[in-house]
Write a structure and sequence with these properties.
Number of domains: 3
Oligomer: single chain
Strand order of the largest sheet: 6-7-5-8-9-10
Number of helices: 15
GO molecular function: GTP binding; metal ion binding; ribosome binding
Number of strands: 13
Cofactor: Mg(2+)
Strand content: 15-25%
CATH class of the largest domain: Alpha Beta
Helix content: 40-55%
Order of helices and strands: HHEHEHEHEHHHEHEEHHEHEEHEHEEH
Distance between the termini: 65 Å
Protein name: Hflx-type G domain-containing protein
CATH superfamily of the largest domain: P-loop containing nucleotide triphosphate hydrolases
CATH topology of the largest domain: Rossmann fold
Keywords: GTP-binding, Magnesium, Metal-binding, Nucleotide-binding
Radius of gyration: 27 Å
InterPro entries: G_HFLX_dom (IPR030394), GTP-bd (IPR006073), GTP-bd_M (IPR032305), GTPase_HflX (IPR016496), GTPase_HflX_N (IPR025121), GTPase_HflX_N_sf (IPR042108), P-loop_NTPase (IPR027417)
Amino acid sequence: MNQRTELIEDREYDTVASSAMHVTKQILNVQHVVIIQPYIKWGPRKNPTKPDLLLQEAEALVRSLPRWNIELSMKVPVETLDKRQLFGTGKLEELKGIIQARQETGTPLTCVFISKGTLTYGQKQTLEQVFRLPVMDRYSVVVQILRLHAVSMEAKLQVALAELPYIWSQVKDQEGSAKGGGRIFLSDSQRQMLQLRERKLRNELATIRSHRELLRNRRRQKNFPVVAVVGYTNAGKTSLIKALTEEQSLKPRDQLFATLDVTAHAGLLPCKLEVLYMDTVGFMADIPTGLIECFVATLEDAMLADVIVHVQDMAHENCAEQRAHVERTLGKLMQQGNNGDRALISERIINVGNKIDLVADPADLRMDSGGEQQRLHLISSRTLVGVHELLLEVERRVLRATGRQRMVIRVPMGGQELAWLYKNAAVTESAADPNNAERLLVSVVISEAKLQQFRHLFIRNRG
């Protein structure tokens, strides 16, 4: 067993993670879940998203896990999310009564999901004592989903690293609230194990990262333009790439965080230029920074792309807020990352409104959420409406971003020039020159560097 596999299959660590987060390797175990969505009623910290939509997203998270059943789902107003017991005493007793009443009818309940980014150790301990059930927050539920969808070794290591900030925060909270007494959350040997695990994970991911840098450099050498496809989770990114590339092996799934690895898919633009579409992990609101930071490296390829396609689910009631969240997060990632001169300018971004086949009147969607006349490309990845027009726009942006140009070059029939152009440019058409039977007219898309190389090889050297 190599070191990477040992890091994933570490029983001592699994015991600590299970205690801190209630996550498990046995994801297929049946869970009967109570969902409680707290929301602030008023004030500056009030969420712009409606409580009903917050609850819908919490339910979608739970449904992303096989055999996790929602038995009870409710939204609860609070003044603040920072109280030790989260809810007022009266509300807490009311919730306890609701849960007990459901249990007395014979409904099995196995855990309570409080849809808040992260619960402190004190909040979790108080709620577990009252409800007498394990309590999970968004961080731990999302980690459970990520564990399920992590396929590559890199994704598994990223998820393993993402778990550690949460465990350390729980330890810190517990120590702060223990006041010199109470159960010790971690033994000294467990602390050492976590510290060593974190070092090993970071080292392994650094190795993988350098390998990906090597692959990226090879792509640059081959001069493939890169189009990153980003968006809120379940907006239809994979479906769009399937529509753009006609890659039948792609299997889009109606799930949150269905795509965890950044994957590359080759496609042809109408001008016959080959591009790489990068499928990326989805964004989601109220995901703690500890989780997002672990996927910054995974999104590096997207940040360095020539063009970014931002896919939006036009059928979702909260589409405007989802779009704003993705734009804010992209902006932060751009500031954190090493992106060279790749600024997040509007010319690099194509806004795409997907799933218009599920919208009653797509004509109402032409104006963006801010009321500006910014172009929104309306499409349906399922019915392919608008996909060809989008491809033409991708082509236009790619040619501009990469300094490529369309031109017709006259070359000798049967000469080396034609073979060179096929290898180093995108040849869209070749036809006999009507004015010279010994010549061909070749329509190409070619970069400035390759054009100069062609001139140097074949034009300047003619006697």
